[in-house]
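Model: Ready when you are.
Researcher: Fold this.
Model:
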Amino acid sequence: MTYRTARRRFIGLTSSMALIGVLTVAGTYTQAAPHPGAYNVFPMHHFWDDLQLQTMPGDTWERLRDNLQWQHRRQDARVQQWIEHYRSNPANVVEIIERARPWMAWINEQVEARGLPGEIALMPFVESSFDPQAQSHRGAAGLWQFMPGTADALGLSRQSGYDGRLDVVASTQAALDYIELQAEQWYEGDLELSLAAYNAGAGTVNRARHAAATRGEPSDYWHLQLPGETMKYLPKLNAIAAIIADPDAYGVKLPEIDDAPAFAKVPVDKPIDLAQLANLTGMRHSDLTALNPGLTNGSANPSTAEVMLVPVEQEEAVLAELSSPSPGGVPDSDRQHFVQRGDNLSAIATQHGISVAEIRQHNGLDSDVIHEGQVLSIPRRSLAAR
């Protein structure tokens, strides 16, 4: 069973009982997108449209449909209500799904590899409108809307320059681990109850089940009395799955997405400045930052991030640059300054024999404010003159 596999991974990281203790009272409590379009922060034109991807033929939607397992839920009145809600504004549904394009095939692969229902790959639609940088008013963040405490318990670090909740690869793995772990620990493999616990916390779900049993009522998700947000959670998920299963019936035109991931994972073996890497490989800086929302200060450091994501067609160029010696490759650490506690731009400029204005311009800084752990690139001109 995949649940046991996930459990073993967690035991290797921390005490299982300690982790369960934290997660019992945790939950995303997010419902970050109460309706499609709640995160309409991006234009309809997406950076992914401009990439000439060379991926294997196939359709990620067909692959997803093959993995859907909860079709019988679509007849439930609550699911039908949300189907009607979504179909009333298909443009918003399409906009959210467009935002999923960089991530959908890869997330689908991860869900399929664990033998989980395909519906789970659509959870970010409900959680965050597929916005990797979504922030809820309660403090949850990322595609999977992890609260800080839950993220900490699951090993998603939050440090200067990096937020694991925004890292799509790390947060997806953590979310799927979390779902499997709770299903095994509390619900004898019942994933619907685990999803309810993902939203409301296992403690809330377990109390509701106990109350139902006391009343002599069924204790599955569809018969429980849970917080309103959680009662809507699975109906929403099943509703969007129904639309994905038969988009023509609901007036929705899905974007074409190949079933091979459109990004590659590149190991972070040394500090990498995203702006300079983009310049050296001919990528747009905005494309690289969009793929790496977890890198919050514009750089990747092996102390915080194991991998960074690049468009699959740029993988070879990026690996070549990262392995090339100076001066052709990405600047080595002797041309970077790692900001320490107490550093300021004036002192750093004096140390490297350049002006504050040069550092600001070279690093795209709008002010003199810098942060501990930040990586500043030092212009080559100063090094040649030293």
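Researcher: Now this one.
Model:
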Amino acid sequence: MREIDTHFPAEACPFCGIAAAYPHPSSPPPSLWKKQDEKEMSLEDIVPDGDVQPERTQPGSFVVLAGRGVVAFLDILPMVGGHLLVATRNHRVKVSDMTSDEAQEMGFYLPLLSRVVSKVTNVSDWNIVQNNGARAAQVVPHVHFHIIPRPATKPEIKSRSWTMFGRGQRDELDEEEGARVAGEMRRCLREEIKRAKGVSKL
């Protein structure tokens, strides 16, 4: 067992808790991309607004996406507003532990979610950061990518580390703002999926 697993077992993983609180409406097919139409799969991955309840998890979570192999939610200790985490649904510690189907779904969603973050925050530049292992500053040992907007003008972050490693200097996410931003991201993601897949309506 890896050192990082021993001090943070899967059953205590907060990201697994979020994934369990927001199950995908369909059971995963044997081959993610070959057994079901991509359009149907993608559109049902977005959590309906009425089903989003931050109190389902502890701490509360603001979920944007609940796909078969990938979930996305706001970071509760964001570097800046709109800081989004994109994680595997199943407990994988490092990128090297991901399955090919998980990697394919992650690859499908990272560009879409990047556009969503950019549009919702009105910030044209962003970082995508992913850490593997404690020495690489992985705080939660569950595969996740950070999508972090880089505002052009925000003086208070000039003294902060933009290496994005570890917890750094972060502020707690305001619940009201979290609900608003996550809702706007879900709306924007629906539009992105419809555009990407050529779907005229939900």
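Researcher: Key takeaway?
Model: The helical segments are 3-6, 14-21, 38-43, 100-121, 175-197.
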